Each structure stands twice: as structure tokens, then as C-alpha cells.
Amino acid sequence: MNAIKKSVGEKTRALILEKGLEMFREAGFEAATIRDIAKSAKVATGATYYYFPSKEAIVAAYYDHVQVTHEAKVRELILGETDLRERLGIVIHSKLDILKDDRKFLGALFRYTGEPDHPLSVFGKGTKSQRAHSAGLFREAIADVEITDELRQLLPWALWMMHLGAILFFIYDESAEQRRTRALVNGVLDLVTQFLKLTSAPVIRTFLQPFQGKMLGILKEAGWLLES
Amino acid sequence: MNAIKKSVGEKTRALILEKGLEMFREAGFEAATIRDIAKSAKVATGATYYYFPSKEAIVAAYYDHVQVTHEAKVRELILGETDLRERLGIVIHSKLDILKDDRKFLGALFRYTGEPDHPLSVFGKGTKSQRAHSAGLFREAIADVEITDELRQLLPWALWMMHLGAILFFIYDESAEQRRTRALVNGVLDLVTQFLKLTSAPVIRTFLQPFQGKMLGILKEAGWLLES
DNA sequence: ATCCTGTGTTGAACACGTTCAAGTTATGCC
DNA sequence: GGCATAACTTGAACGTGTTCAACACAGGAT
Predict the structure, then answer these.
(1) pTM of structure
(2) Strand nucleotide closest to residue A45 (CA to C1')
(3) N or C: lower Cβ tally within 10 Å for chain B?
(4) CB-CB: which of B112, B172, B191 is closest to A211?
């Protein structure tokens, strides 16, 4: 058998990641210290920095894993589902399902939102490929729907933004099981799909034309829409 | 003359604020240390914490001042302007005018976006009154336009969100004089005002009705729309 | 067997934001 | 003026994330 052998380093990394998340879940991101995590993983304090460039990077690594899990889940659930509204619901709700027990430390991902040059900035260059990847799921979800070229370029980005907003709202949501977030998502998705149906009407299309063009131009200029 | 006398403390506070911003502007938020700022203001290191609960709070105090300035500017410019598109443009662009030289440290305001309980969280309870105040400017800007009650409640919040997005985009915008942000804002405002004109048509109104109601319900539940 | 190189690992040291007990100064009251 | 209290100021100390020179060790080349 071709069993995959983890190198020593990979095992240590995985251990630090695991123990780190464990402590973040228990105590929250701030309260769990690097020293605690290292101790819990039975390595020296500095070892963490051989594998992760910062404390937040541990959460980022977690989120990378979330993305992989999410993609697999979406591919599984979306198979054979042809209704647009359902497909979009699957993408967003399955993401929230994955994140649901980790709202406590998820906020750390937003820490560098306002710092364009930080490697972990949500909108920065360092996370561009992950954004593209995530938007790709939405691109696939709308693949079969008939819309203008402009919308086909804009929508994945817009939906990704919405999904980001949903995650934020999710973090703040104190309602039981975060039902409010689910309802909000459903409401917005209803609107979006109904709106998309309307765009088949020429009146609406000409109404939106100049706006779409302008938005596309600006976002492309700004390097937002070059996703593969 | 009834000259306003600043107490000793108020002068120190003002000095720390002034020197702090000076250093943030020069070096950026991270690079400027509390020790540097204190030294520059000729006080002890700890003095800062008598006036500001944290380093970020200095930026927050700056932003409070920005809000005051902004409100004054808007009241001045909006007088006699009856066109909705123009009024909205005034509100957002004058804000960007005020912020334009401070993009370097403005990002600090977004540091706690993902932490609901932090006093400086953008969406948290600690900043609720400021959100309400800021949204109030938009409420006034749309005061004379004829729209449904639901829209009148939703719009100030939606516009405030847009304006927040504009500030974020502004921070990331590397184009000369941040022209991209200005163009984006103009494009979105064009769309919004044209859309609002459309809502006078009954077709559109019935289309949006259920969505508006749902949104209002969720946002009110979540404590977002209780603004004075 | 010995050396060499790359991969891991260590823990002390650093700089930073923040706290706080101890002081000092201003202010209102008699 | 003298006193009491509140307002303000100090700087050492704490805990934190992070860095780094030094060390350990595997395993391939000679």
C-alpha cells in the first residue's frame, strides 16, 4: 500500500493546529495564548512560528481547510440540483453549517480587513487566490442560468461579498442556532433569483446596462475580477 | 468675555490626540508606539491610558471628530440642494474629502469588525449611537423624497452600509486621488436614485414588498434599526 | 565512519500594549 | 489661607506575540 507518510514537521504542524483550534474554541482567540498552545502541543513556545507566521495564521489555516471541506460538500450536494435558488442556498448554507461551532474565533479572520498590505487582509493581495476559489463555487452555481456576460462576471464576486456579509452577520447573530442569519440569507437569495429572472426583460436590461459596465470597469481596474 | 477654559486634563488629552494622529500619519498605526506618542506629547507612557482606553481608541476619538466635522459640512452644503442624487453625493463625497489624508491609519477602525463584544467593533453595541448618528445624515438626505415607509426605514441603514464599504474601498484604492472610489460611489448612487424613481411604479413595489418586510423584521430583531 | 546539509526545535530575549500603586497637582469649601 | 477631595501624572512591572542564535538530528554522499 502506498500509505502517505507524514514527515516529522507535518505532524508537528498538524498538532499545533489541532491544539490551537481546541484552545480557541474553549477560551476564545485572545484568551488562548501562544504559550498555552505550544505547551498543549508539547513543543517550545517558538515552534509555532516555524509553521505559522502569526497567531492569526492558525485561524487562517483552519479557514483554508474549511474551504476544502466546503468545496467537497458543495460538489456533493449540488449534483443534480438544477434550480438556481436551491443551488445558491446550498453554497451559502453549507458554509455556515461548517462554521457553526467556531463563531467564537472566526472574528480573527477579519482583524486585518482595514489593512490592505497585510498578508491576511480579507481583501488584500495575499488572499486573492482564496477569494477567487471561493467565488468560483458561485460561478459554478450560476453556470447554467442565462444572463448577460457582464452579470456572469459580476455575480460571483457579488455573491462572494454577500456570503462574506453573511458570515459576519453570523458571528454577531445571537438568535438561537443563528436562525436570523439563515432567514436573512434566504431572503436575500430569494430577491437575487427573482431579480435575475427579471433581467431577461429588455427594459430592465437596458436600465442596468450602464451600471454593470461601470462596475465591471472599476472592479477590474482595481484587480478584483481577474479570478480564474 | 466668557472664554472657554480647558481644564488641565482636556489640554493633555488634546495634546496626546494631536501628537498621536501626527505620528500615525507619519509612520502608520502599527509603527507609531504608545511610548513614542507619549514622549512626543511630553507625558509619561501610562498617561495615554488615563484618556484613551486603548491605542485604537485614539483613532476612534479622531473619527468622532470626523463625524462632527462631517455633519457640519453636510448641513452647509446640502442647504437648498433639492436633487436627491446631489444630496447623497454630498453626504458621501464630503466624508471622503475629510478622510482623504488619513487613509494610512483609518484601517485601525476596522480592527474589531469581527468581534461583536469589543467596544470599538464597527457593528457592535458600543458604537451603536455613532452608527445611528451617521445614518441620520442619510435619513435627512432622503427626507423629501417620496418612498414607502419600509424604504424610509431601510434606506438610511443601507446607505450607511454603502458608505462604510466606500470607506473600505477608499483605504484600498491605489488610484491617483482615489478616483476609482469616487467613480464607484457615483455609479452606485446613480443606480440607487434611478432605482428609487422606479419604485413609484406599482409593479416594482409589489415585487419588492415581501423582501422589504422580511429585511425590516430581521434587522429590527437584530437591533439594527432602532436609530432615533 | 565521517561529514554535510536541510529540517526541526529550543527557550531566552525583545518590543509592545496595557495596568496600577504610588505619587503630585489642581480645585472647591470653610 | 488651610484642608480635603478629586483630578491628573508617573514609571516600573506584567503578559503578550514575535524573533533569533544556538542546538539536535536525520539521512544521504564520500
Answers:
(1) 0.93
(2) C11
(3) N
(4) B191
